[in-house]
Specification:
By secondary structure, this protein is of the alpha/beta class. It has helices spanning 17-24, 33-46, 64-72, 82-90, 107-115, 126-139, 177-184, 206-225, 251-262, 275-278, 311-315, 403-407; strands spanning 3-6, 9-12, 15-16, 28-32, 52-57, 76-79, 98-100, 120-123, 143-150, 172-173, 190-196, 232-234, 268-271, 282-293, 298-302, 321-323, 332-337, 346-353, 361-364, 386-390, 393-398. It binds ligand LLP.
């Protein structure tokens, strides 16, 4: 365990989390370089025998230092905005390893991607393909395109992060795929190189993957038989992690089903994992401000809010909360809440913890993915610092936003 207790003190690698808190103040995100590295290498090794590019999904955590670390380990990037494409390039990711996804790319974003020579545009509607064709024509280039298909498979995950069902806005509907290919093949500035799919996020069972990948592989074969010269298959991301009692998929099992599906195809494989790389590599550390006791319940009011970590408020997501300095007796039950003026600003209900006092530190676990990247300055609360721990070294990889920066 990278975040673990030693003599009743929570450590991040070889440093006591409370020592970091003394140095940087609270709240803050704390990441482990060792965990990030291990998580990425698990993917890389599982797919080492085949032509696979692991395109880390920047949206899960887009801190420059983290993208750079993954770039050095060989990662490509899955991006969804000009900002993310820029961040990938800034971190030194080679353009041909950058995939540009998303249903709503603007003309400007397309132009930027084309000028930057990125390797793949994942497109999701005929309207988008037509616009990309027009933009590429003006620049005198051909746009490398993979068409995102919606396999109509239920990923059995949270409704708000499911993307592969008929009713979701993502991908080309299964029954429209041939029509879209037929239209796209007449567009002079579009080079259709492959197909792509992504069925959702925080997926903890292999079954939906199996169903979707088989369907997509069959489609891939059929399209080739129809004469399309397809060379790329992008199978998205979505692999879940353990927040509470989930039993996450083993990357080696995931790799096995993919290898089996793609073996007869002879393709370049692209994957877009985010959460599984960054999720358990980060914690959010916060200080208890007040213990407010009511007849109903006891609230631990902390200095982090839903603007810093939105997942519990937005998705009702569960994050484990532990004391940074462990108490032997964990007999007290608290609702752990933030200071934001919203009833949904709750990190955990009825959590068993030691008896808390003002000034105690709490750690919210598995906050590395969709934590900092989804944070905001709601209530005019400055963005909080991000810290990278490497052995016994601590580096501030994003400074706390100052009020001058916040207020402009
Ligand atoms: N590729 C595409 C096209 C995606 O839409 C996503 C995530 C990924 C890859 C990466 O998925 P991952 O491996 O991280 O599951 N904010 C939500 C998650 C939203 C996911 C959006 N798409 C959360 O906090 O749970």
């Amino acid at each position: 365990m990278i975040f673990a207790y030693k003599n009743s003190r929570l450590y991040a690698e070889n440093i006591a989390v409370s020592d970091i808190a003394k140095q940087v103040g609270t709240p803050f995100y704390c990441y482990s370089k060792q965990q990030l590295t291990g998580n990425f290498l698990e993917f890389k090794n599982a797919f080492s025998g085949i032509d696979a590019t692991i395109c880390y999904a920047l949206k899960s955590n887009s801190n420059h230092n983290i993208i750079s670390l993954l770039q050095k380990l060989g990662s490509g990037a899955d991006t969804v905005s000009e900002g993310e494409v820029r961040a990938a390039l800034k971190a030194g990711i080679s353009p041909d390893k950058i995939v540009f996804s998303g249903v709503g790319k603007t003309k400007r974003e397309m132009e930027f991607g084309l000028r930057s020579n990125i390797g793949q545009f994942n497109v999701e509607s005929i309207e988008e393909i037509e616009l990309l064709n027009e933009v590429a024509g003006k620049l005198g280039v051909k746009a490398p395109v993979s068409i995102r298909v919606n396999p109509d498979v239920d990923a059995k995950t949270h409704d708000k992060i499911s993307t592969g069902r008929k009713s979701d806005k993502f991908g080309i509907a299964w029954e429209d795929v041939f029509l879209v290919f037929d239209k796209a093949k007449h567009l002079k500035n579009i080079d259709i190189q492959g197909i792509t799919t992504h069925i959702g996020s925080q997926i903890t069972s292999l079954e939906p993957y199996k169903a979707a990948f088989h369907k997509v592989a069959e489609l891939f074969k059929t399209l080739r038989e129809m004469g399309y010269n397809l060379a790329r298959l992008d199978l998205g991301g979505g692999i879940g992690i353990k927040y509470k009692d989930e039993n996450p998929i083993k990357i080696s099992d995931y790799a096995d089903i993919i290898k089996e599906v793609i073996k007869p195809l002879n393709v370049k494989l692209f994957l877009e994992p985010g959460r599984r790389i960054s999720g358990n590599a980060g914690i959010l550390v916060s200080e208890v401000q007040y213990i407010k006791k009511t007849i109903e319940r006891d609230f631990a009011i902390i200095d982090a809010g839903m603007n810093d970590l939105a997942r519990p408020a937005v998705y009702g997501a569960y994050h484990e909360i532990i004391s940074v300095d462990e108490g032997l007796e964990q007999h007290n039950i608290y609702d752990v809440v933030g200071p934001v003026c919203e009833s949904s600003d709750i990190f955990g209900k009825e959590r068993r913890l030691k008896e808390l006092r003002s000034g105690d530190l709490l750690a919210i676990l598995c906050a590395g993915a969709y934590g900092a990247s989804m944070s905001s300055v709601y209530n005019l609360r400055p963005l909080i610092p991000e810290i990278m721990v490497d052995g016994d070294k601590v580096e501030i990889i994003r400074k706390r936003q100052t009020y001058e920066e916040l207020l402009g």
